[in-house]
Give the backbone structure.
Amino acid sequence: MSSGRRRAILALLAITVLIVVMDLTIINVALNPIQQSLDATNAELQWSLDSYLITFAAFLFTGGVCADRFGRKKTLIAGLVVFGASSVLGAYAGDITELIVWRSVMGVGAAVVPTVTLAIIMSVFPPMERPKAIAAWAAAAGVAFAVGPVLGGLLLEQFWWGSIFLINAPLVVVGLVLLVWLVPESKNPAPAKFDPLGLLLSVLSIGLLVYGIVTGGEDNDWLAAETLGSLVGGVVLLALLVVIEGRMAAPSLDVGLLRNSRFSAGSGAIALCFFALIGAIFITQFYYQAVLAFSPMEAGLLMLPMGIGSVFMSARCPKLMMRFGPRAVVAAGAVVMAVSFVVTSQFSADTPTWLLIVAQLIFGLGWGCIMAPATASLMSVVPPVKAGAGQAVSQTVRQVAGALGVAVIGSILGVVYRSDMEEAVGVLPQALRDEAAGSIGGTLRAVDAANLGDQAPALIDKAVDTYLAGMEITMLVAAGVVLLAAAVSLRWLPKTAPKPPVPPAPKPAADEAAGAPGARA
């Protein structure tokens, strides 16, 4: 395969990843118009976000295993067809229940993409070129978090809320045409016996686990029967999956990968940083819009420096990794992320915009040092024929960590906010107090609904001060989590970059002649 074709395939796969990861964040800017158009409650609105996250995480492992067994190109095409069709149907949903259903189906289709695209990269690129290819793939995933809110804001200025889903359709159609034309088929030449029990357990265990995390974070009640039952059920089924797969001669889940320190440390470092990243984005978006009164479009644009920093460092990671090793690069990136979180923890209602941009840029520079080296390290111990299943394990850990990040960091912020605001919202009518005490958005909506007059400015100031106090605590928690990722990297990631295998020496001419059919005759 020519180098030009490989580069074209890489660009196509990177854009494909960007599309599906972007859908994790693009909906955030459309929540208000969706609520008004579909007459949705806050809980229903939250499920329009969470349904995508739950199915995305639950089907990651299934997508990777099916790709290795049935063909990566076929599996990727199937996933994109499901994602594109459900995006169109979601765009024209007549009520919030329909939207939640189609968002769930979108998550199933999207789950195929991150695992299969990296598996294709592993099969298309020779070992010497893989670090750069993985860096470009990782950069696309990082940029997606910044592009989603910006693109969503642009679309909402011109069109209705469904346009943020409908935009996926033409992108998917073009992607499918290029996939059929450019990408060669690849799969495991000696696949294990099909393991339906393992796949079913993986979907149920991860689905229950993420569902419990999401509901616990929403209600801030981790001991509720529904939440606790989902968490316990998910953990029990996950343990059962590991036990069953560990006893199989050719399992779908290679438990041996989890015992490899390079694989576990790479996956763990990414998961910890992803926990902090998703939680930090969740907190700062409310800060930009509720405290600083930026529009959704302006808040989205403030995410761009993070994407720029991520791309800048991802492009340089292969050289940095060869010079300093994965251990030093990942640990340094985690420390840089911690610095950005500490800086953000000190933001106020008067923080200048230039400082917000600098903090986001530092954030992106740190994140750009995490994904590519850690992914290259963990994938170096996965046989290319099992690249889909191996990457599926790492991606699943990452998505669970992301869900946990929003839930835990959101819960911490909720506890701080409610404890300080319960007395202050006493000036509001009784029917509005509970919602007002739950979040800064709830407080601002309650103030508008109650027409408090002269009392409104004092309550708004109290809400802002309380939110900033909660943001300081949560950002310091996020900083602590990424410093833990730095410690994991320093302890278990390799000091030097994995060396690509040496290609076998060509056979002597005499041996080739002896092996030719004519020579035997």
